TrEMBL record:
Pathway: Purine metabolism; AMP biosynthesis via salvage pathway; AMP from ADP: step 1/1
Organism from which the protein derives: Leucobacter luti
Entry EC number(s): 2.7.4.3
Record-level GO BP terms: AMP salvage
Family: Belongs to the adenylate kinase family.
Keywords attached to this entry: ATP-binding, Cytoplasm, Kinase, Nucleotide biosynthesis, Nucleotide-binding, Transferase
Stated name of the protein: Adenylate kinase
UniProt comment concerning the protein's domains: Consists of three domains, a large central CORE domain and two small peripheral domains, NMPbind and LID, which undergo movements during catalysis. The LID domain closes over the site of phosphoryl transfer upon ATP binding. Assembling and dissambling the active center during each catalytic cycle provides an effective means to prevent ATP hydrolysis.
Amino acid sequence: MTDTTTRLLIIGPPGAGKGTQAAQIAERFGVPAISTGDIFRANIKGGTPLGQQVQAIIESGELVPDSLTNEIVADRLNQADAAAGFLLDGYPRNVEQVHALDGMLDGESLDAVVLLEADVDAVVARLLKRAELEGRADDTEEVIRHRQDIYAEQTAPLVKLFSERGILVTVDGLGTVEEVAARIATGLDAQLSAKAGR
Ligand code: B4P
């Protein structure tokens, strides 16, 4: 990977708006948005062996085993369109996955990690609304709350780790899509220019 590579990650609780914002950030930087959740859902929809393996896990709100998830991400990052950078959405989700990603990047670091913050009740309300529109199998109130618990236990601790690495950009995820996008753009520009000046 070269110095012009842009390696980004967006992290936040289920329903914080990661998928919505990931698409905009990826377009702005001309890199692919890579969502492990989207990869799993596409495989479930297509009835592939991977989809059959993960369907029950995803519908219960549990995490797919690390070995499987790490392998999928490693394959995806090896594809040509990720050579100049990428935006990861939904991965890494626990400490083991952070170590696996560090190995995949071979000593290179992520350039910035966008943390989208949002209040639990607000995100539960968002996802229940999405359930009405899209009917995602893991968007029942019980499973949404379970996904929030897993985020708090396993993913939230990564925030401290990325903060200690000096790459965390914290953004308030409440407001309109445009308001949140503007906050992310400002925060990312500041982080990336500070990193370039180091
Ligand atoms: P994901 O697809 O990553 O799902 P999520 O974290 O629950 O995010 P979600 O898509 O719900 O919400 P988003 O923040 O985009 O993962 C699904 C499952 O896959 C996991 O539970 C797990 O089983 C498995 N999985 C995925 N990655 C894994 C990994 N690394 N390891 C192991 N297992 C893994 O929010 C989107 C919603 O917010 C939309 O409805 C949107 O319309 C709305 N929204 C966005 N911006 C808004 C705004 N400003 N105002 C109002 N609503 C807004």
